[in-house]
Structures are given as C-alpha cells and as structure tokens.
Amino acid sequence: MFHYGQALFYKIGTGYNVYVDFIPEYLEGVVEMLHIGCHLSASGGYMHIGKEALSIGADTFQFFTRNPRGGKAKDMNIEDVTSFLALACENHFVPIMAHAPYTLNPCSADARVKEFALEVMADDLLRMEYTPNSYYNFHPGSHVGQGIEAGIVLIADLLNKILRLEHTTLVLLETMSGKGSEVGGTFEQLRQIIDRVELNEKMGVCLDTCHVHDAGYDIVNDLDGVLFEFDTVIGLERLHAVHLNDSKNAFGSRKDRHEKIGQGELGLSTITNIINHPLLCHLPFFLETPNELDGYAEEINLLRGAFRE
Ligand code: FE
Ligand code: FE
Ligand code: ZN
Question: Whole-model pTM?
C-alpha cells in the first residue's frame, strides 16, 4: 500500500487500485501491533476483566453492561474502575467496548419494550463515562412487521433522545445478518439511521464479520469490494471496530451463528486477510467466538502470529 496526495493506493492482483479519496490520520503512522480482545464476563468487575484480558494477550475487551437479558446493572464501583483505568494505561490498552443487552429492541412495536430499551441505553451511556472514550455497541433491533423504514425511524428517535454532546463515548451500530425482521442487515440501513441522528458525530459502526458474510457481503472472495461498498455507502471513517468471528453458516444464509476462528465458512485465510487489510489493520478486533478463556488465548496467539505489517 502507498499513498499519493489525497488518494490511498494499494495493490490488487497485478495492478494498483485507488481505494479511498482521503487518507485517514490513523493510517499515517505505522501499525505496529494487532489490537485484539474478546468478549469477557463482567461479573468480577473492571479490574478483574482487565487482568483476565492481559492474561490472554489481549489489549482490549468487550463486555455486557448488565445481564444480557437486560436486568438492573450493578452499581459502579469507583475504586474498581479507577484501578482498571491505571492498569489499562500501564499496559497500553486501546479503548474497550461495551455491548448493550442483545435482548433490547429499540424499534419494537410495543411501547413498553421500546421504553425499556431507551431507559437501559440512557443509563448505560451514563455509566460509560466512568471509562471515557470507549465504545458502546448495540444491535439496531427488529422491526417486527412494522417495516424497515419504520424501524429505522424508531432507532434514530431513540438515539436522538439519549445522545448528549458532552458524552465521550462513541455509539456503534452493529452490522447484522438480517435474520427475521432485523434492521441493519445492509450498509444502506445503517447509513439511514446515522443520517437521522442529530449528534451523528457520536455515531459509528462495528463490522461483525460473521454477520456481514451471512447477510450476503462476500468478504471471502471480495473483501476489497465489500470495503469499497462500505466506504461508498457509509464511509470508512465511521468504521471503528470489528467483531472478528467465523461463521457456521453459508454465505447469504442470514443465520448469525458464530464459529471458532478458521473453523467456519470464512476460514483462516479470510480472517488473516481481514486483520492485515490496510484499511482495517489499525482497528480493534473483538472475538465473539464460541470459546472459554483458554480458547480465546489460543485464537489471540494465532492471530498475533498471522499479523504482519
Ligand atoms: Fe452483537
Ligand atoms: Fe457481533
Ligand atoms: Zn452474532
């Protein structure tokens, strides 16, 4: 890869293709190491997750803000958060990512379900400020028969009620597989949500490799094409994180079942292409593969070995 003026070039096959018409600041420096973590249990507190992440060679992690079913969150323990922030700083962690309970439905037809999503997400965003400049990822939800358009409007309405100018957290929409009436199965849908959000400088996207593959984006045979499409529709400057998962299901299946790295339909060579891609290699990667701690340690080790600059 090289850049010339405002254009970023890199080699595809035998020729050079222009990729994006800007050079993001983050691509100016050399990316020296892979930033990677996995989903970890938050039940032991921040310091506990931080140490667990370190023990498996991670420099970030993802966690649920509360019980995935959406119950009440534990009170913040200031001492625990403060110790964690020191640990993260000493060990050069990159920003951590909280995942909203996946049972929330911000675009439900049921007023109470919608209200619940709003209350939980608003509370989560307050809690996120204890670990400033982190990511808060959520599933856009399912429109349950109201139609994609109506779903998009409801999701944006909710975001307009909870985003605050003073928040330091970046709120990420996750790319979905499009199963059932899920919103977010296409880049266009995510773009339409972002367009309706007033404080959209607070918004970004987290690309889930299993989900986009299952949604019909061919990252196995045409990763460049998919990233080009992402850039055209949403803009690569909105892409802040990757959920790195293999998939149990076939291309375009709209299924969403994660597989261990290298053991699914994506395979190790696709995963290796993803972490090394010049437009992705600087991003934080979060594993959500079916693993216990030792399995995650092995995958992180494998991927660190496959990362070359
Ligand atoms: Fe998710
Ligand atoms: Fe995910
Ligand atoms: Zn998934």
Answer: 0.91
